[in-house]
Amino acid sequence: MRLFFLFWGVFLPATITCLAQKPVSDIRPALKSLSPEQKALVVEYLKSTGSGVDDDIQSTYRQTSGPTQSKTVMLIDWLRQQQKQTQLATTTWDKDTIYFADSTEGAFLTGVFLVANTGSVPYLIKAVKTTCDCVAYDVPAHPIMPGESAVIKLGFDTNGKLGIATPALIVYDNSTPNQRKILYARANILARKKPHKYPWND
Fold first, then answer.
1. How many domains does the chain have?
2. What is the C-alpha separation between 70 and 17, in angstroms, rounded?
3. Does residue 202 belong to any structural domain of this protein?
């Protein structure tokens, strides 16, 4: 499908490849065909670039650099075609398990995963589930564009845990091969030392 740039009734066809190489000055015609949820994804992407964002996507778009504008146009075109999309994103993760040192029960452990989009289409995390309510996480709400990377943060509350624990995050996305990624935290949780009434009991 081609993206058509509307200029007073005249359509100028351009492929996604061309748009990705050269930003356009006005993206409002393209935005008209997006749903509110899709527009929100465009806003989240622009936010992730560090740009000052207000309620007007076009104003925000004009504040960004040429490369960001190119990727934003690419993202819009990808979102417009999303229902017909069959191509999945290709990603590379720095690891799939965070190994923590021996920790005392009650400690809150934190770590990060790094994911890179090594493919040619935007990478989008759609949902995340955990295998334990002891796990907290923070994932990017915006799409990760080709060539970009993002950090996934994980927190593990060890309260009530003893021995080897391996809670997991299940990340549902649009990546090959099966549109999900499972990330683990692994730690050996040691029992807390009970306080003694007298110091010579140690």
1. 2
2. 10
3. no
pLDDT tens-digit series, residues 124-163: 999 999 999 999 999 999 999 999 999 999 999 999 999 9
pTM, entire model: 0.69
Domain encompassing residue 109: 91-190
Residue 23 lies in a domain: yes
The yes-or-no verdict on residue 30 having pLDDT over 80 is yes
Residue 45 and residue 108 share a domain: no
DSSP the chain: --EEEEETTEEEEE-HHHHHHS--S--HHHHTTS-HHHHHHHHHHHHHTT----S-HHHHHHHS-HHHHHHHHHHHHHHHTGGG--PPB-EEES-SEEEPPPEETT-EEEEEEEEEE-SSS-B-EEEEEESSTTEEEE--SS-B-TT-EEEEEEEEE-TT--EEE--EEEEEESBTTTSEEEEEEEEEEEPPPPPPSSGGG-
